[in-house]
Amino acid sequence: MIDFTGVEISKEREEKRPNGKEYAEFALGPVPQGYGYTLANSLRRVLLSSIPGYSITGVRINDLTHEFTTIPGIKENVLDIVLRLKKIRFKVKGQEDMYILMLEVNGKTGEIKAKDITLPGEVEVINKDYVIATVTDKSTSFTMEATLERGIGYKPADDSLRDEIGRIPVDAVFSPVTLVSFEVVPARKGGKADYDKVIMKVETDGGVTPEDALVEALGILSDFYKVLVDTPVLKAKKSQEESEKVKAKKSKANTTEKISETKIETLGFSAGLENKLKEVGVKTLADLAGMTREQILAIPGVGNKALENIEKILSKLGVELK
Fold first, then answer.
1. Residue 316 exposed, middle or buried by CB count within 10 Å (0-12, 13-18, 19+)
2. Which of 61, 171, 190, 306 gets the highest tally of CB atoms within 10 A of its CB?
3. Considering only 80-84, 207-211, 212-216, 311-315, which range has the smallest mean pLDDT?
4. What's the topology of domain 8-51+176-229?
5. For residues 47 and 213, is the Cβ–Cβ distance under 8 A?
6. Looking at the predicted structure, is the pLDDT value of residue 254 above 80?
7. Taking the model in full, what pTM does it have?
């Protein structure tokens, strides 16, 4: 049976990177040889595709009906602004699936940045200095209402949202994990050197920590494999195996009890052999089964022929000498 005991996870390095990004390196192991790549590849796929995050999925800008237009006094066209909204990253402490974000700029010129967005108390912008648009005319009014949603992976713009007047759908990139790489290196376990250790490198946008992302990924994999094990076919097989083990255990217990209770008089030995065995304290089948061939031959008056007779009778009962 493959031994998976002794596997540990440790954080080897961590650092904060520009624009709020977070980076960490983890060591996972030791695992049996070959399982390093099995573990690392599955974790990498889950980290990049299945960790939930938040992204803007829709926006209203100055009551415009579509994004293929311009706003007087704004340097960027509306499509450019919508594309920029995709790159604003958020850290959310709450558990809500959706939040409404507001932005209003009046009577000033210059850059409108992500930090200018009015946020709910549970929401924080990570890349605060990211530029959304540039106002070139002080008389320009710029208003925005954006929908921030929780999701997984990538979600293309939902054109059904256009049914709401002035609502412009936005492609959403939810994943907070921006980079995952790994290296599998040799490792030792006790006196053996044929084990693997995985060095996993994880970078996030700051929406979650690399450690939290790794824990989430391990939980997803665990739930996935548990579902497979609990499928009807495997569950029935597992139930059958457990039932057979219980039967075997009961059978063994019954056999042990039977051996301990069986008197030597009932085994069919000759009167002479029976008396010789009793003289040395052998009274039950259990006493006899606990002896070695050498011990039996050491009994006065018991020779090879008598030993063969004993073994023949014991064999019929499913018992062997030590």
1. exposed
2. 61
3. 311-315
4. Gyrase A; domain 2 (3.30.1360)
5. yes
6. no
7. 0.70
